[in-house]
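seq:
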Amino acid sequence: MKKLLTSFFLFLSLTACALVYRPDIQQGNIIKQSTIDRLRVGMTKEQVRYLLGDCVLRPVFQANRRDYVYFVQPSHGTAKIQSATLIFENGRLARIKKQGFV
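struct:
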């Protein structure tokens, strides 16, 4: 009886190690494809900020560049990164580079 109880508790302790809780990790601006599709060349910085919000990454030495990055790490899956780099010229949106969108 003692061996059976010992075996049972040993089994429970070993299986509990596989059930480690790992939370989902989300960082950055949530970027949807539908929102990116609403961007138009010629928009002002204020219009872009209204549409996408403030960007998380703002390069110090490149005042005309805005990087919007969204990172998701599911608890038991592969990471997904979406990013949109916006280049402004004379206060207007000139180029859009996007990565990780379907």
